């Protein structure tokens, strides 16, 4: 079965911020015969063949090379009983290149939730100050603001993302802005239905009005190329364990260097300060790594580096184009099934590798359970905001054949009623 080739025009730039394709890791890519390339990518993952995994938006599997790197580094560090904290600065360079940032703007956390929490807890807000977030935000993105609302009396304001227009979402945000608005936060790509926001436009709006713009990138890093300097956000959070293919327990936080001191340190300890003394002197490191505190599992950060190197060897633009093409194929076919409604935007410019659908005839729980139990297709139920749908994530280890299995299964489930 064809792995779906990509036209040469989509492959003009294959690296992430100029990275070269690594030789010896994957076969040469041929647009006329891409199957061997994508088969090699699939073989890089130890995923079981007993089922088809389509839930990268929830938890992405790590390639074997990543797992091997974590195990090897853990054994090495345990052998000499050292922390390996020097690894952090080495991988910081790689991460900055991968995300279009400077190394001093990057720190490592345990997940996007922790990164989001550092921003929420660190920004100086007073009772009555307002934070705008979208109704499709992940709990790891909105709960930290609800917590501050409960504790400090800030006001959380919600807008619904527009699935038909980037301008519609921006207008909704703009209509909520008042003189008390201090923060705008959106998901780069929404988790429930995969809406891609025009984040550059939102960043411009926020900066024009003197509002902090925080971007939850849990669904973007590893799915699409990310250039944080080009976006212009004040801060960005992501997880290594989703689309990036990093180990569980890895996350990244970016804070623009010009805004570093606007985020107070909510958690501190060793590695927060380079100059301190009792009873009262503490001078923070002049970089975002001031938010890295205490002994860390640095072998996981080593694994994250290998994950980013593998993605660069494939090419970030190639990854984006492949996942998007699979999703577009799935989107079209599901839309043609009787009673099925695809909630992911119709406009291909507003979506990438997530496809979410529901049926007016069969409950979403029934569909999701049948896909998992009867057809061995691991998708994800979407109950947030009463959407009551099923989400399919198509990533680099998936294929057109996987999509065909989803399409055939949904047709049968709906037909049975």
Please tell me about this protein's structure.
By secondary structure, this protein is α/β, with parallel strands linked by helices. It has twelve helices and 15 strands. The strands form four sheets. The protein has a seven-stranded mixed β-sheet, with helices on both faces. A four-stranded antiparallel β-sheet has the order 11-12-15-14. Helix 2 runs antiparallel to helix 9 (298-314), helix 4 packs parallel to helix 5 and helix 10 runs parallel beside helix 12 (400-416). The longest helix is centred in the C-terminal third of the chain and has 20 residues, at 316-335. It is globular. The two termini are 30 Å apart. Residues 1-24 have low confidence and may be disordered.
Observed structural traits:
417 residues; alpha/beta; disordered N terminus; 7-stranded mixed β-sheet; 12 helices; 37% helix; globular
């Amino acid at each position: 079965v064809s792995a779906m080739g990509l036209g040469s025009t989509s492959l003009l730039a294959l690296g992430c911020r100029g990275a070269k394709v690594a030789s010896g890791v994957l076969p040469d890519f041929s647009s006329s015969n891409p199957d061997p390339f994508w088969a090699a990518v699939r073989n890089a993952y130890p995923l079981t063949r007993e089922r088809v995994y389509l839930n990268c938006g929830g938890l992405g599997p790590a390639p074997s090379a990543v797992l091997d790197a974590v195990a090897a580094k853990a054994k090495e560090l345990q052998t000499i009983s050292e922390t390996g904290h020097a690894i952090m600065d080495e991988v910081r360079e790689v991460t900055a290149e991968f995300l279009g940032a400077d190394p001093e703007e990057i720190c490592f956390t345990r997940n996007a939730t922790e990164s989001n929490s550092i921003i929420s807890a660190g920004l100086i807000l007073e009772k009555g100050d307002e934070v705008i977030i979208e109704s499709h935000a992940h709990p790891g993105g909105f709960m930290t603001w609800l917590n501050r609302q409960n504790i400090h009396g800030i006001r959380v304001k919600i807008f619904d993302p527009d699935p038909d227009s980037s301008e519609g979402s921006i207008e909704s945000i703009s209509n909520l802005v008042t003189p008390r608005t201090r923060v705008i936060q959106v998901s780069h790509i929404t988790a429930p239905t995969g809406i891609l926001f025009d984040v550059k436009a939102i960043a411009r709006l926020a900066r024009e009005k003197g509002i902090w713009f925080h971007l939850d990138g849990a669904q973007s890093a590893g799915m699409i190329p990310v250039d944080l300097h080009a976006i212009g956000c004040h801060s960005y959070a992501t997880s290594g364990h989703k689309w990036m293919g990093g180990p569980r327990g890895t996350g990244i936080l970016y804070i623009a260097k010009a805004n570093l001191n606007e985020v107070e340190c909510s958690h501190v300890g060793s590695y927060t300060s380079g100059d301190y003394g009792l009873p009262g002197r503490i001078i923070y490191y002049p970089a975002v790594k001031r938010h890295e505190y205490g002994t860390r599992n640095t072998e996981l950060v080593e694994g994250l580096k290998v994950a980013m190197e593998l993605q660069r060897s494939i090419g970030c633009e190639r990854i984006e184009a492949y996942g998007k093409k699979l999703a577009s194929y799935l989107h079209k076919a599901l839309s043609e099934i009787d009673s099925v409604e695809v909630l992911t935007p119709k406009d291909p410019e507003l979506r990438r590798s997530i496809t979410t659908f529901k049926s007016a005839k069969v409950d979403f729980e029934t569909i999701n359970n049948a896909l998992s139990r009867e057809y061995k297709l691991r998708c994800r139920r979407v109950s947030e905001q009463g959407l009551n749908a099923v989400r399919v994530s198509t990533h680099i280890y998936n294929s057109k054949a996987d999509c065909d299995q989803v399409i055939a299964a949904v047709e049968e489930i709906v037909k049975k009623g």
